[in-house]
Design goal:
Helices cover 29% and strands 25% of the residues. The chain has 109 residues and is of the alpha+beta class. 19% of the residues are buried.
């Protein structure tokens, strides 16, 4: 049976207000540091993606992904680098985003 409102399963995964607040907090700091310039949000059937760009017309530097199907395994949040390597994965978005904060500290020095 297809996923949808009749089964109580969302047909699309999205970030909620709290998650977006945490993501945009680090995004704002990286923009202020001159590291990031643009972002894009994709809400798909099985995952939501917040992509971060240095310039608008290039591939994303990082993707912050939310995959609810992985909730009971290694965690539904992950940060993926430009090369597709998972930099950090976990159950708590704030702790997963710390991998990006380390890059902010280096950028400021």
């Amino acid at each position: 049976m297809p996923a949808g409102p009749s089964r109580g399963i969302p047909s699309q995964v999205a970030f909620d207000r709290r998650e977006l607040s945490e993501i945009l907090s680090i995004y704002g700091r990286m923009v202020a540091a001159g590291e990031w310039r643009d972002y894009g949000i994709s809400c798909l059937g099985d995952m939501a993606v917040f992509s971060v760009f240095r310039r608008t017309a290039e591939n994303p530097l990082y993707r912050i992904e939310k995959r609810p199907k992985l909730r009971n395994r290694q965690g539904m949040y992950s940060v993926v680098g430009m090369d597709g390597q998972v930099l950090k994965r976990g159950h708590d978005l704030k702790s997963v985003l710390r991998v990006l904060e380390r890059k902010l500290i280096r950028a400021v020095d």
